[in-house]
Amino acid sequence: MRKFRTSVAPNVLNTVQTDDFSDFHSVEAFVRLGIFDDETSYFGITIGQFVVPEQQLTEFRSDLALTNLSFTFDIPYFMFTYHYIGEMDFFRPLRRWQWEGGFGFGLVPTARWRGEGQLLSPNQFLPYNINQISNQGTIARLELGLRRYITESIFLRTGLRATYTYLGQWNGTINGGDGEFWYLRDGSITPLSSVNTFVAPQTVFEPNLGLVQASVLKNPVEFPAGVVEWQFSVGYHF
């Protein structure tokens, strides 16, 4: 988001200040079925959602335009998983605990990207209302943790896990009309309505050549999101 810009004109310079992704929350539910009758291997289904709290972004442009936006991301997902569970007999302080390792792979059906704010310049006031949905997403996970039964059926789990998602084919509305985010040739991203996409400038700046005739647009935005979590959960074994 530090490469966000609201102008595709090559002669307009900008700088961006944005919040870091300091918080990244998730919640999920899982069901696992034991196989091989040995209570060590489990296949399952996990359903959950990542929620990125509101992120503030401010853009300053050389033509004296100022943009303030707030973004939120919601990433629902489901995965098919496999876990292996082993005893901790080899480590006496944790002999009442079990260790488990696993992996999962699945889909992100409809991630949502929302933005609200306004652009203010000496001769313009433009409110922004952005609503984008990803129609293509995948998710993969690796995890390693510990668990312990506190009753015959209820157990606690805790551990580390790394999750990677890929989100593409974003589309939706920008200020009430069809539009989407685009990568520019310089690596920036910008929100453009369908009309603005069609009339986008055909002149770009090349360091060795100066201004040349070429589209400033590269391709629609698609991006990965990764997170490493310390997770805690409660399970019921039946």
Helix and strand layout, with pairings?
Layout: E1 14-18, E2 25-35, E3 41-61, E4 66-87, E5 98-107, E6 111-121, E7 124-149, E8 154-174, E9 177-184, E10 189-193, H1 194-198, E11 203-206, E12 210-213, E13 217-220, E14 223-236
Antiparallel strand pairs: 1-3, 2-3, 3-4, 4-5, 4-6, 5-7, 6-7, 7-8, 8-9, 8-14, 9-10, 9-13, 11-12
Question: Any key phrases for this structure?
Answer:
single chain, 238 residues, mainly beta, 1 helix, 70% strand, elongated
Low-confidence stretches: none
Which series of helices and strands comes N to C?
A: EEEEEEEEEEHEEEE
The N- and C-terminal alpha carbons lie at a distance of 46 Å
Mean pLDDT: 86
Q: What gyration radius follows from the Cα positions, in whole Å?
A: 23 Å
- The helix count comes to 1
Beta-strand share of residues: over 45%
Q: Write down how many β-strands occur, each being a DSSP E stretch of 2 or more residues.
A: 14
Describe this structure in words.
With 238 residues, the protein is mainly β. It is built from one helix and 14 strands, in the order ββββββββββαββββ. It has one helix at residues 194-198, and strands at residues 14-18, 25-35, 41-61, 66-87, 98-107, 111-121, 124-149, 154-174, 177-184, 189-193, 203-206, 210-213, 217-220, 223-236. The longest helix is centred in the C-terminal third of the chain and has 5 residues, at 194-198. The protein is elongated, with a radius of gyration of 23 Å. The model has no long low-confidence stretch (mean pLDDT 86).
